[in-house]
Amino acid sequence: MAELLIAVNPDENSRLPYLMRIPQPGGDLVFRTSGTWPRVKALYCHPVGLDEWPRDAEIVERLALRSCRRSGAAIDVIVERARENRSQLVFTSARGRDAVFWQSPRTRKQARPSVRTPTARAHGLDELQIVVDAHERYAYRFQNQQAGVQQQALPCGDYGVVIDGRLVASVERKSLSDLVGSLTSGRLRYQVADLAALPRASVVVEDRYSQVFKLERVRPALIADGLAEVQVRWPNVPIVFCETRQLAEEWTYRFLAAAYTWATTEDAALQRISSGGADSPVVDDKTPAPGPSSAEVRAWARAAGLPVSDRGRLRPEVWEAWRAAKCADQSW
């Protein structure tokens, strides 16, 4: 069976840490790429010759292919798994040069919101310091906004503003699938209840509200009623639909900037923060950032000569060996 292979790029000076090998009738194609699958954004791929694929390639992902067909300027890829199984390699040009982008249906939908977000500073702040929860996966980087980012554990929400060691505003980020899952499981109610205890908080959704009524595996009316119930019960925590990830990131930046300005200028807000009330939880700045992904530990284990499978969960002894090695060289 044909396979899509992802390996570690042996060139340590390359900004693209992975190699991808994809079979084609005229011969396999090899690309340098920045990730193992296009989950939240399209991945840039640099085509290279087949001779750049190392003989002893350190395989990170081995995906069985159901289909891999070229159609015009794109290669449609379908792998043998239930979720995140479709992607596309698009041959195009960028700034007058040939380029290849690896995208999924989700990244393609969010790539062009048909708007240009502003570059002006929010509320005139030279640089807003945004705290990103240490457990947030695929976090916003705020690279197009005047904001600095630091990672540490937050008591609630995914992105927050901390003043004098206290969390004064927070935003919980949701994709539509995460919103539906957390609402049907009841987890969303606990999350919003925690947010409601803050001076300012919100939930931002990376999709349109109209998409709720296009759901197939759950009754749309059930989700719409659940969202309405949450809003009525906790009216001080708005749920904002922002159409795309890019717009949700921009809205989060503007919301947190406004909350920071409010908290540092209004006397009532300053009194609530300085009083150390329950509505402003203390944030521990010594909380460590999250560890590496399974793919990184799997690659490390292979380099260390440890037997590991190509997919699935890593055994506990592999994680223990990784921690012991990192503690020894004090790099983590």
UniProtKB/TrEMBL annotation:
Q: Which domain of life is it from?
A: Bacteria
Where would I find the Cyclic nucleotide-binding domain in this sequence? 126-217
**Full protein name:** ERCC4-type nuclease
Q: Which SMART domains match?
A: ERCC4
Q: Which UniProt keywords apply?
A: DNA-binding
Where is the region Disordered? 275-295
| One GO BP | DNA metabolic process
List where the protein spans the membrane: none
Q: Which InterPro entries does this UniProt record tie to the protein?
A: cNMP-bd_dom, E3-bd_dom_sf, ERCC4_domain, Lsr2_DNA-bd, Restrct_endonuc-II-like
A GO molecular-function descriptor: nuclease activity
